[in-house]
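Why do we care about 3D structure at all? Because function follows from shape, and shape follows, mostly, from sequence. That is the central idea of this module. The next example makes it concrete: a single protein chain, its amino acid sequence, and then its structure expressed as tokens.
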Amino acid sequence: MVLRVVGSNPIIHPLSPDFQVRIFTGSGLFHSAPAARGDANFPFMEIMVNQVLILIGGDNIPLVLSLILIVMLNVFKLKHMISKKNLPIVFLILAAGVFVAFKTLGIREKPPTKYEKILHNVGEMLEEIHYSPKQIDDKFSKEVFSKYLADVDVEKNVLMQPDIASLRKYETRIDDEILGKAPIEFVPAVEDIYKKRLAETESLYKDILSKPFDFTKDEYVNQDYDKIDFPKDEAERREAWRKRLKYLALERYSDLLDQQVAAKVKPGYVERTNADMEKEAREKTLKVMDRFYERLHRKVDDDDRFNMFVQTIVQCMDPHTDYFPPVEKRYFDEQMSGHFFGIGASLREDDGNIKISSLITGSPAWKSGQIGQGDIITKVAQGSQEPVDITAYLVEDAVKLIRGTKGTEVRLTLKKVDGSVKVVSLIRDEIVQDEATFAKSAIVSTEKGKIGYIFLPEFYADFDNQKGHQSSTDVAREVIKLKEQKVDGIVIDLRNNGGGSLRDVVEMVGLFVDQGPVVQVRDRDGKPQILPDHDRSVLYDGPLAVMVNELSASASEIFAAAIQDYKRGVIIGSTSTYGKGTVQRNIGLDKLGFLDANSELGTIKLTLQKFYRISGGSTQLRGVYSDIVLPDAYEYFKIREKDNPDALPWDEIQKADYTPWKYAYDLNVIKGMSNDRLRSNSVFSKIRSDAEWLNKESEKVYSLNLDKYREDQKQVKMTNKELEGLSKLSKEMDVQALPQDANKYDGDKDKADRFQQWLKSLRTDIWLGESVNVVDDMVSQKSLVYNK
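And the structure:
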């Protein structure tokens, strides 16, 4: 057992048969070396003391003293742990701790502020618990300095270079603030300058928008803010604002031109002048900016800036460590609870925009197939009413417009990841987990036989109800149903599956392989732990393929990697999966944070462990490489773990002891047959070229010339439309529900309709089509494989 106390947050973690005690308080460490239980050869106990005066703070004194006493009493109970010669050292350390503790009570001048508590607790957790913490030093401080200023002024048009220079004195002090060696001064200093400059830019944008724009001029605006610097002076800042506002007005002016063309065929049409529409475009832009600044004045306070600062700090450790203030944590829980009527999309703010963060499986947004992660919602309309521009809205305000009465229509104007603009109509529904959330199956009939198809949207598990849905159990149920129909092979679809329950993925791998290791897990101590499948039975031993894409992550990658390492099946999809090979846990920043993730000081989602394949390599960063690569629309977009500079690195450990599948297929033959089909099919080649072109077009340098802008947008829309068409088979496959599910949705027309819609979408899925062909190839090899 390992007992760790970080600040005032204890962590009890079963690690191994060894007994180990660690007490972390501030920068000090008491450590008793591990002693194997019953090991008579263990000769000593080691206790190290580091900076005793910093070890015990007033807030932690009762807990620390109690723990020291408990630890010492338990240590004395262990046979062979302490010899008589060590007793003076033990009592000396205990006496010193008590003395310093009470002395500390007298010298503390004032209790820490809320901000100091949050910052210090976060710093301690990052140092003592994070899987691979960076050293919190001047180098780390400089990284936080740069990233926080970039977060505060995303478009780099409020602050100027002289402002940054005046803040440089804090560049190497932030680490001291985190570690409690210096008062919190950086964020207040930034806020003072920012408020002053914000008032200046408010007057600036109003002045610029009071004059007409010339959209015939040939000039460009760079909106890749990572590649530009803060303006040198006020003149350079004004020019940056002019181009930004011109682009916003150009978007709206182009929309008005399109609306006028569409209105010509309507009765009562009155032609508008270009000058009139240009003026309206500026007025609309002004409203957007006024609303954005009103929000900054009214709703962004000191707490928001400080919370952003803490988030910047934790994100510098790795992309999946996050800080949630109490309000945001509650809001996140409400968003995911499902007890409201809406579209089923989780939203987040990014660069002043409302972005789709994730989709709830089975929700209207998910079922539409037209909304994706990273899409920006620019407008929201109630039915046929005029759309409301939500640029610069708070997430909560945007949600109020999107939610509504069940059965009513809401229209979203989306700016897609590829840069195109699309209007999507959705009917609000109660956002609850229904059949779409769970595993389900179908049968694809081909000229060569029947292929079973299992769709798994996530590795779900109902931890509060033993009789509730568990993904591994549900998949096993679907496999049994497919076996009853005597299918010749099975395809498991893990596309867009972001992961979930570790226990379930281990058990699910066990459905297809004999007993043995499934995945290795390593914490910061470096000792890997093997998670095995103990079941000697194999539920299904026939041909197997696993479909993945760029958003298959975490548990999905564990499953795909295990199937690949055992040579049990073929992995089909994007060049690689997402590449998330780390484990996080929510920890409250109050005392006993591991027992309650909801804290008045906030919650930190902390990376604690890392996954490794049984072959030794990590799934982190690299993900899982597909055996057969099928081009898709997002291959060239920077959306994977490897595209984040703060992602933890790939590494490898010793491989586990495992035996590959005895009926392994000749992968080279299977790949060769698929490649022959792909070479003769121009569709996949066209998907690859279109995806590559769209990626280049989204490089964030835009023309401010009307004609060039409209031509660029026309090309983007045409290519995107072509790509949507290419993703559908020209001839539908024969995809049907299992006979066992024929009456599954009797009495629930809505669910029955959704199920039929799902089957219909499968019939034209070009990626599923090739996956079925691959399994057919495996079926043709089956007799050779099983007769070896």
